[in-house]
Amino acid sequence: MKIDRDTIARPDAETRKRLMESDPALFRSLIEASGMAVSIHDKNLFPLWGNQAYADLWGYPVDEILDLPHELVMPPESVELYRSSVLPNIRKGRPWEGEYVIRARDGSLHTVKGWFDPIADETGEVTHVIAIKQDLSDVIRMREALGAAEKSLNFISDCTSDIFFRLNLHTGLYDYLSPSVERFSGYTVREYQACPMLVRKIVHPDWHGYLDVIMEEMLAGTVRDELEFQFIHKSGKVHWASQRQILLRDKNGEPVAVEGIATDITARKEAEERLRASEEKYRFLAENTADVIWTMDNDYRLAYATPSIVDISGYTMEELQGRSFRRMITRPSLRRFDQALVRRRESERTGDYSLINSLELEHIHKDGGTFWAETVIKRLLDDKGRPCGFQGVSRDVTIRREAGEAILASEARFRTLFEDSPISLWEEDLTKLKFYFDELRERGVTDFRRFFYDNPEGLARCAALVTVVDVNKATLSLLGATSKEELFGNLDKVLTESSMAAFAEEMILLASGGREYCGEITNRTLDGETIWVMVHFFVPDEYKDTLSRVIVSLLDVTPRRRAEEALMDSEERYRVLAENSQEGVIVMQNGTARYVNESMLRITGYSARELEELDFTDMVHPGDRNEHAPQFARLDSGEMNESLGSFRILTSSGGIKWVNMSVKPIMWGGREAQMLILTNITRYKALESELLIAHAQMENRVRKRTAELSKANVRLKAEAEERGKAQERIQALTQQLIRVQEDERQRISRDLHDNVAQDLSSIMLKMETLFDGHPDADPELARRGEAVANVLRNTIASVREIAYGLRPPALDQLGLVQALTNLCHDAGSRYGFDVDFFSTGIENISLDFDVEINLYRMVQEAVRNICRHAGATKAVIRLVKSHPDILIRIEDNGRGFPEDGPARTDPGKRMGLQSMEERARLIGGSLEIQTLTGTGTRILFKVPIESARRHG
């Protein structure tokens, strides 16, 4: 039915009033339908009535909640708020609103917003209060979530180097800029707000036009997702920025603002520029290097090669493209290439494509000849990791191979001269000696003669620092050796006590920068026989700074020396020996030649009369006179009684000979005289010169070869040094950890011994005397007391045993030897096997504390392994000083174990062995284990005395 609005009469004011007053239920329905918690209270805020929403808020039925006290439905803070704020305002007729907390029936707390309006009667006195409450729990959760989101956004904005912004397109100003803009551009947010044109000011002038176009596009309603431009930082540096943005529109679709993120991409741009420059550089290198860089397909057909391929093969890239690599090499090289392919296929069959082949192959040149190339081949993979060909580098090594063959030929010639020389020849390395001399200079030593005579131990150290690299066959014959290995090492095997004075002169000469020495010393053969030799050493020019190679020759002059000794006893014997000696002999008395043998006449070419009338210095070559002038002056004065060394003389025919002269005091005719002995060493000098020339030629060729490897050596050395440093740091940390562990063991041992053991002893004493003076005590109680005392005795013994195991007091009080004696005795007694311990030579060595405790722990671990695992009936332990080391040998007759046995059968035993190895390494020593299943075990510790000795 359609109702006409105009036919419905609107009620007048009186009708409205009557309708409202006539039906109170109407207001109740209105309050219920509002959904708000509405209640009526008396003037003291006690509830009189509430709607259903009010009951739902509290969780109680309406009838029940009207009788509940405030303290039950509100926490103390809200009750206090009622009394101190809400109630006073109501009594004054003022409304109150605010937030407070209520307690629901289930005990949960809810934050509500309350409005309290007082209702007064005709006299103005408050009679009722109407209250409305709104549950704010959801609002608070949203508020907290928004706060957390705001904090998170602020944190991101403050911490990131990117900036967040909102640009108002109508004003051209930023509605928002994150604080990180200061890190981004150097300018603060306040500076941007104070200067609206600052953005355009910092944009690089070259980009103004570009950004104008961007702004016009945004005003027209289009925006680019990302753009890049340059800007000028406050510091004056030019930076790159990347800006990602979105366009915001109003309800009419008109653009109003742009929101976005700007990122500083300067580092990326610089990296891209460096990459571009690097690519250009490497492209230039690839196109212009003498090496050939190439790629091949999976069938080894050439796909690409750099232009340098023409220089080494004669073919252009176009001529070789698509040609099989197998057709480019000779048949012998093809076999080597096929062998490399087999290894590659085996590796790639398991999915390993990392193999790199390095081959030297003989290639076929376009002109029909051949050339040698060193080729490195690696596998190429596509984006999915699948093999798609090969890449490599080839280098022409034809000249290097020819040089290598020449070096081998030269070396063979040099080796033949060296090995077959009739003179004893030595090749020695004095590098360690050079370091020692440099160390002495750093310590302020300038007078090496005084230093070596005041410090004979320094001279002994020099002998130990000489390394024998090689000797020839004549040396083996001279010293009675059967192999070269018997003479390798240092000179301790051949030097004698009487030769140390001459050795000192050699060291003084070397330390002072000298490069050549000649003199006579005694040597000891490996059979124990003492012989006299004339030693001559020479340092080649290329090794004068390092002393890494020194050539030494020895000439056996034992027959001559024995002749000289015989001449000292008898003048007649002198004459007989001199006549039969191969050396020239002149007896000088008061400046006159009293005797000249035939060998002297043969060497000089002068007659006896000519020699008697001739001044000896006139025979000396002019080039050597000045060098030996002081010695000849002492010869004339009769004070000369030593070797003059080697020099040249002029024979009567004008020839030149090399001689070595020594002077000995003798008695001739009952008066003092001097015997001059000349040895003709011209032949040996010629051989030595030829040897040095051959050696220099070989060294020159080796130097060229070494230059090719120097770059690789530098990289390897750097890596080795880095690994060495890392190993040193690891060793230092391990040593510190073990030291801390020992300190902690000592502290725990002391606490167990001084506190726990003492307290237990006191308890045991009290238990033993508990029934003293009580003869009538119950026997059962006395028996139990004795049982407790026995338990305490065993406990005290165990505590002391643990304390001694953690830190044996004998080590601090009696020293290492006695501590090990006690350890062996206790182990043998407890486990029922014979432990034979013996020590010698250690008592006079003041050992470092760390060395003592580590030696003790290593022996302790070895003994523990014997007790637990070996099943031995006897063990032998020896601690001896054997210069230059301290040796600890531990043997047992147990079951032994295979070399890989401990790791597989008993991890605990393997850990013990690792601990022993680590401790030996930390104190500069070594550990050697010899064992086999069923044959027992032998362990040898070796620690250098020098590193074990206590310093300071």
From TrEMBL:
Gene Ontology terms: cellular component: plasma membrane
An annotated Gene Ontology molecular function: phosphorelay sensor kinase activity
UniProt domain PAC: residue ranges: 96-148, 225-277, 357-409, 515-569
Coiled coil: 709-743
Pfam family, one: HisKA_3
Domain PAS: 278-333, 570-627
Signal sequence bounds: none
Alphabetized UniProt keyword annotations: Cell membrane, Coiled coil, Kinase, Membrane, Transferase, Transmembrane, Transmembrane helix, Two-component regulatory system
The keyword Secreted is annotated on this UniProt entry: no
Record has Lipoprotein as a keyword: no
InterPro entries, per database record: HATPase_C_sf, HATPase_dom, His_kinase_dom, PAC, PAS, PAS-assoc_C, PAS-like_dom_sf, PAS_fold_3
Name used for this protein in its record: PAS/PAC sensor signal transduction histidine kinase
